[in-house]
Amino acid sequence: MKNFKRFLSYALPYKWQGFFAILFNILYALFSALSFVTLMPMLGVIFGETEKVTVSPNFPGITHLNKQYLEDIINYFVTTNTTNNGIDSTLAYMVMGVVFVFLLKNIFGYLGNIYMMFLKNDVLRDIRNEIFSKIISLPVSFYSEKRKGDVISRATSDIGVVNNTYLDLVITFIREPLNIIFTLIIMFNMSWKLSLFIFTFIPVSGFVISIITKKIKEQSTAIFQQGGNMLSSLEEAITGLRIIKAFNAETFVINRYHELSNKILRLSNKVGKRGAASSPTSEFLGIATIACLLWFGGRMVLVGQSIQPSAFIVFMGLAYNILTPAKSISKANNTIRTGNAAAERVIEILDSKNPLADQKDAVEITGFNHEIVFDNISFKYDQEYVLKNFSLTIPKGKTVALVGQSGSGKSTLANLITRFWDVNEGKITIDGVDIKTINTKSLRAQMGIVAQEALLFNDTVKNNIALGISNATDEAVMQAAKIANAHEFIKDIPLGYNSPVGDSGGLLSGGQKQRIAIARAVFKNPPIMILDEATSALDTESEHLVQQALENMMENRTSIVIAHRLSTIQNADVIVVMKKGEIVEQGKHEELINLKGTYYNLVNMQSLES
């Protein structure tokens, strides 16, 4: 119920749509019951049961309107119209009355469905928007623990299940009980004895259905989880298709996917069997009740003659009319269990806490003036420390290169200064201010990042360079591309800056993608540049062009360069040599060469390799 109330709150901004949806469904329930009552006058005419009333009954007033008056006025009309116009005319009027009431019933049903559709679509959009905003706001570390496919599944299919389930339940729990109540009121007015049989059906059916469906939530949760795993497997297969084919791993990947698919099949069959059993069970119980009514009511007509045949036929129709809403209510038990299973998965994302969220009194910085200081920091992703008691000062305008073997903690420093993670011990300051106390948006506004793998979005060249800037001018984009040595190849593409780059930049070469990524960083024009092995994945020619672009970009900026190829950082103001999370040497290129230590050995190793 808590989950139900929470998601129902998303409908509050659209209360008028909800109001009309409920109103029209109430009218639908009322006319569903009345539609059978309108059959009585027609059947009375057919069977010749209509009591002859020759004097128009006096209207008792709205507050005293009763069943007797309604019967008398109908009987008066039948009597006078039959006398004046014949039985054919009366029967035609009766049929038109039945058709008109059924027409109103279906019009109200249609309007109720339309307003509910509008409400569901609006709510679905709002939940989608909120969960996407949440996904973007969560730290990078969150997605090192969650599979991307599972998160995508929660943000798409699970939300749809929740939306359809809970909002449909609102109508089910309003319309169907009212349908039953209106019908029972009419039935009790017709015969209280026959009506008592109906009360044996609803509670017994509900009890039996609850036994059948009690495991549906648990199994539905498992289905959603396996669906997320399958989506992750699909996403991984598409992303790594080249590797899969190169290693002839198609059969292995296909078999793994089939295994997940079969798990979902088995779980779906279990849920389906339980869900399928509820409908025929409730219908069988209903028909059993109808059979009892036929026997008991038949005796009342034929033996006791305490009810007219036309009234008994209508009563049977009303009794059967209860079956549909009763079945809907019993099915709602299955539905709400499935909805709860999906809701819990969605809520887990929505309620995820961001450990890197800004403090309430976070400072907003507008520039970088003096220095960056790593003050005795230590950090670990899991159990083992990646950085230990690390200290380094980077003055404004200087280029600092970080070198060392893989796993020495170089890229971790880039993740920490941009606050993708937070240090466990010590602090990082910019102009003397701890970055934990700085507004994250203003902190990252001071930084541009060029990573080893240039991530481009499936958009145009221009929009990738001007990422996040909606009013970027062509001149500014072109100037950034020129600094990044990208303008020459961009202008030769058929559509130039309006050319699509493809999924993940697949229509461009590695060097071209990297230069667009550099142009993106240049366009941002931040005072601090972070280059994380920006040339390590490139061939010699591309590396030369990209290195020129990097040098253009770093001019008059503070730069942190994480380097794999040492030839690219020989002009750095300071080279910091790292090993197992600690600084083992630092100084200029020539100074470190003269030391003949770790850096000297690394340079010699790369010279031999080349």
Task: Describe the protein's topology.
Layout: H1 2-8, H2 15-37, H3 39-47, H4 67-85, H5 87-137, H6 142-145, H7 148-190, H8 192-212, H9 216-239, H10 241-246, H11 250-304, H12 309-350, E1 371-380, E2 385-395, E3 399-404, H13 410-417, E4 425-430, E5 433-434, H14 440-444, E6 447-450, H15 461-465, H16 474-483, H17 487-492, H18 510-524, E7 528-532, H19 540-554, E8 558-562, E9 574-579, E10 582-587, H20 589-595, H21 598-609
Parallel strand pairs: 3-8, 3-9, 6-7, 7-8
Antiparallel strand pairs: 1-2, 1-4, 4-5, 9-10
Helix pairs in contact: 2-5, 2-7, 2-12, 3-5, 3-12, 4-5, 5-7, 7-8, 7-9, 7-12, 8-11, 8-12, 9-11, 9-12, 11-12, 16-18, 18-19, 20-21
- What Rg, in angstroms, do the CA atoms define? 37 Å
Give the class from helix and strand content and strand pairing.
alpha/beta
CATH topology of the domain at 2-350: ABC transporter transmembrane region fold
Chain-averaged pLDDT: 76
- CATH homologous superfamily title of the domain at 2-350: ABC transporter type 1, transmembrane domain
Number of DSSP-assigned strands: 10
List segments where confidence is low: pLDDT < 50 over at least 5 consecutive residues: none
Membrane topology: Multi-pass membrane protein
InterPro entries: AAA+_ATPase, ABC1_TM_dom, ABC1_TM_sf, ABC_transporter-like_ATP-bd, ABC_transporter-like_CS, P-loop_NTPase, Type_1_exporter
Keywords: ATP-binding, Membrane, Nucleotide-binding, Transmembrane, Transmembrane helix
Protein name: Antibiotic ABC transporter ATP-binding protein
